[in-house]
């Protein structure tokens, strides 16, 4: 006798969840904006504390590491700033993504909506954070003359940023579902992201290592860190630096593989998340 497959565990229902969740955009758009307003309630500057906090962190780290590595501040500070802005998106996608369904336990159990609504809400919130932080980059354009290095190729930053948030979605889905089922995954991811931050050229540059005698080969080890490629496809065009095709190819391959896993996870486990939370 053939085994009957539950309708809740089909690709059709998985894709229906994505489309119906997107159709409820008034809900997740308002919830995402409300998250930011709630975080900065009764604050005079409100969400602009996001910009200030990132700007102060970038300035402090940029000055410190520029001094330690003997790098020109006018080149190094924009490098660190853009790196931090992108890293904040990656970091939040992993850490907040792993908690997305657990944090919305009440809504999942009480509000009859698509599971993807909570994914869209998180990604939308991160897009708002990114929009606030990109103001710092605009200041850098004028203050440090970064605009002189920009050309038509810098427009590739737009699809690169779109790729970052497209990846943010599948990361949230995959880590969110499995972290809901296995609660040990979230603290493991917390330690992993800290390690990735150290290994990823956010505060340091591969050029610095390559300029040191005997360290050129070690600089190539950064290629093994996936987050390095995500940083490069955005940071290089925003700073007007030469872009490497391999970074785009690697990010593209990870995106396709990640979404394949995310769709399979939604197909197989979407209906079980309300019971797991």
Explain what this protein looks like in three dimensions.
With 277 residues, the chain is mostly helical. It is 75% helix and 0% strand. It has helices at residues 11-23, 25-39, 48-69, 73-98, 100-103, 105-110, 116-143, 157-181, 185-199, 206-211, 216-219, 226-239, 245-269, 273-276. The radius of gyration is 20 Å and the shape is globular.
Radius of gyration from CA coordinates: 20 Å
Structural class: mainly alpha
Reported for the largest beta sheet, the result is: none
- What share of the residues does DSSP label as strand, in percent? under 5%
Shape: globular
**What string gives the helices and strands in order?**
HHHHHHHHHHHHHH
Helix content: over 70%
Overall pLDDT confidence: 87
| Distinct helical segment count | 14
Point out poorly predicted stretches: none
Distance between the termini: 34 Å
Task: Give the beta-strand count.
Answer: 0
Output the keywords:
277 residues; mainly alpha; 0% strand; single chain
Strand and helix layout:
Layout: H1 11-23, H2 25-39, H3 48-69, H4 73-98, H5 100-103, H6 105-110, H7 116-143, H8 157-181, H9 185-199, H10 206-211, H11 216-219, H12 226-239, H13 245-269, H14 273-276
Helix pairs in contact: 1-13, 2-7, 3-4, 3-7, 4-7, 4-8, 4-9, 4-12, 7-8, 8-12, 8-13, 12-13
């Amino acid at each position: 006798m053939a085994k009957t497959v539950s309708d809740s565990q089909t690709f059709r229902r998985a894709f229906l969840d994505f489309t119906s969740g997107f159709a409820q955009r008034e809900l997740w758009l308002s919830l995402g904006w409300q998250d930011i307003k709630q975080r900065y309630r009764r604050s005079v500057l409100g969400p602009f504390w996001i910009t200030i906090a990132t700007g102060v962190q970038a300035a402090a780290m940029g000055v410190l590491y520029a001094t330690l590595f003997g790098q020109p501040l006018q080149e190094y500070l924009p490098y660190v700033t853009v790196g931090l802005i992108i890293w904040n998106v990656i970091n939040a996608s992993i850490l907040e993504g792993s908690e997305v369904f657990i944090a919305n336990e009440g809504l999942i159990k009480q509000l009859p909506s698509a599971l993807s609504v909570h994914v869209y809400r998180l990604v939308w919130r991160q897009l708002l954070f990114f929009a606030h932080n990109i103001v710092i980059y605009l200041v850098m354009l004028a203050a440090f003359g970064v605009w002189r290095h920009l050309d038509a190729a810098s427009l590739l930053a737009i699809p690169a940023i779109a790729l970052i948030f497209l990846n943010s979605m599948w990361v949230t889905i995959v880590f969110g579902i499995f972290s809901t089922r296995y609660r040990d995954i979230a603290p493991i991811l917390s330690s992993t992201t800290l390690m990735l931050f150290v290994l990823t050229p956010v505060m340091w540059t591969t050029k610095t290592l390559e300029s040191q005698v005997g360290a050129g080969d070690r600089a190539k080890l950064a290629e093994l860190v996936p987050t390095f490629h995500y940083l490069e496809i955005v940071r290089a065009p925003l700073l007007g630096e030469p872009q490497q095709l391999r970074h785009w190819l690697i990010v593209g391959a990870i995106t396709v593989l990640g979404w394949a896993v995310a769709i399979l996870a939604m197909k197989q486990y979407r209906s079980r998340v309300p019971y797991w939370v």
